[in-house]
Specification:
about 280 residues; mainly alpha; two-stranded antiparallel sheet; elongated; TPH_dom; flagellum; cilium
């Protein structure tokens, strides 16, 4: 292998390391500056979705039915013709795709796209009003302008909600007036009278039942009070009985302790007398 190849390889490695080091330095020094927290894009800039384009490309040269705005006109190239065979159509469609070639070198493999002479017929025609609207949307607002726009939007929403509520209230009033002014039929009049009579009877029965319920509630309350009082009296008598039994038990314990103490004292006195008598006999 010639020496020039080693030199070129060494130079390539040095240049690669130097480029990596410079790139790392730039990444450390440079930082992304945030301009806006939100990203808003007008969908008219992208035209129709791809599946709609593929479905409509062989039907019409100009069709604006799928556009988001009726002012936007989308033109497409017409591939399929009535007298064209299916194989020829597929071949023409395949030829319109971008062709690629693969370029092989000693250290790199690249896929190159061959430029096509065919101009893309897909384009979007936007009227001046829509273009001005897009420019207005793309304008960067200051904090004061953004705050003013938000306040204006809130006020508009509030006004819209108030108008909706007023319309709802008017519709309710119209319905009430219609129901009040509407003349009832004979069957409806009879049903209304029966309902009123049934309601009056139900109110009277309810009032009578309320008096009976009040009396029953008083009796139940008195019974509960009497039961609680009897329970308290019984509990009080039980407590007195337990206290008397406890006092009697304590008295018995104290009496037993006293008798034991007297018995012990008598034993001590008896032993002392015996010792004195023994000493007296020993000396005399």
């Amino acid at each position: 292998m010639p020496a020039s190849s080693f030199v070129s390889a060494g130079t390539r490695s040095q240049s690669f390391h130097s480029s990596n080091s410079s790139h790392s330095k730039r990444s450390k020094t440079l930082s992304y500056r945030t301009i806006s927290r939100h990203s808003n894009v007008d969908e008219n800039l992208f035209g129709l979705p791809l599946h709609l384009k593929e479905r409509q490309c062989h039907l019409t040269d100009q069709d604006d039915s799928f556009a988001e705005d009726p002012d936007i006109i989308i033109t497409r190239q017409k591939l399929f013709k009535p007298g064209l065979l299916r194989e020829e159509y597929e071949l023409q469609k395949e030829n319109q795709k971008r062709r690629k070639i693969r370029h092989l070198t000693s250290d790199l493999v690249r896929n190159l796209i061959i430029p096509s002479n065919c101009i893309d017929k897909k384009r979007i025609v936007i009227p001046p009003e829509k273009y001005k609207e897009l420019l207005q949307k793309a304008k960067l607002l200051t904090n004061e302008e953004e705050q003013f726009a938000n306040e204006q939007e809130k006020s508009e929403q509030k006004a819209t909600l108030e108008a909706v509520e007023q319309r709802k209230q008017k519709m309710r009033e119209y319905d009430l007036n219609r129901v009040r002014n509407e003349r009832l039929t004979d069957l409806e009049e009879e049903a209304k009278k029966q309902a009123e009579s049934l309601l009056q009877k139900a109110l009277e029965q309810r009032q009578d039942q309320e008096d009976e319920i009040k009396a029953l509630n008083e009796w139940i309350l008195n019974a509960k009070i009497q039961a609680i009082r009897d329970e308290q009296i019984l509990e009080k008598s039980l407590i007195k009985k337990e206290m008397a039994e406890e006092e009697l038990r304590l008295d018995n314990m104290m009496e037993l302790e006293r008798q034991n103490a007297i018995h012990i004292q008598e034993e001590i006195e008896k032993k002392r007398k015996q010792q004195v008598a023994a000493l007296f006999e020993f000396y005399y």
